[in-house]
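Protocol step 4 of 5: obtain the predicted structure for the target chain.
Materials: sequence only (see below). No template structures provided, no constraints applied. The aim of this step is simply to have a reference model before the mutagenesis design in step 5. Sequence pasted as it appears in the construct record:
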Amino acid sequence: MSESEITPSVDRQRHWRFDWILPALFRPRKTFPQIVARAFSNWQVPVMLLLVAALLEVIAAGNVRRVAAAAGEVSLPPNFEYYSPEQQAQYMQASSATSSPAFLFVLPGLAAIGKVLLQWLLVGGILHLVLTLLGGRGDTGTVMNLVAWASLPLVIRSLVRAISIFSTGQLIASPGLSGLVTSDGGSWALFNIAWLSLVDVYLIWYVALLLIGVRASTGLPWMKVIGGVFFTVLLVLLGQSLLKFGMSKLSDLTVIRPFLF
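Step 4 output (structure tokens):
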């Protein structure tokens, strides 16, 4: 067998490290030094798992909404009885239009893919910049690798949510710690719900793996590692919270012209 025939097989094995999944989750102190020691990209497996898990969650939620729409169940906005007959008809027409497969599966699926990739790129890019300012010696590729592998707890989160939705036939009403806040319709309550919905044990697990990976890749003191990781994660969480808050405010608006598919 020639050397050219061996090389592609070796490269594929380097990139697709399925054997690191469980060790990265449960033996990170031993595994992350191996991950960050590799000069080549090895983010493919965790990113693929993130995408698959996110799509499974979308499929589960879309199926619940499809069943509800088929049964004629429509979620009415607050004060719907005070809408004019024309507004009520427009809302019902819009609800009917958004029960199509495009709204239930395709668009949410594309949004989920974009969210996974954007979060990975944002966390990796910001974290690399922050660590560089703190004196870290890691490169961009190494940081992107460790952020991808540190995201494995988020895979478990999506899988748990998908299984819960499939088994109960109901959407998760209060993800994370958002159930601790009672919504009174005010902006502050909605913002608290937005950021608390992102906080759970999987996020803590994710941050812990980031800390271990950054320490292994940069050799920075623990105080700088903790400061850099927490600043990055809090900044990204703030952006996600503001986006969720804005969407929740927009959801209170009456739909005037539905999109037809």
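Step 4 remarks: Confidence is low (pLDDT under 50) at residues 1-11, 254-261. Residues 42-69+81-250 form one domain.
Proceed to step 5.
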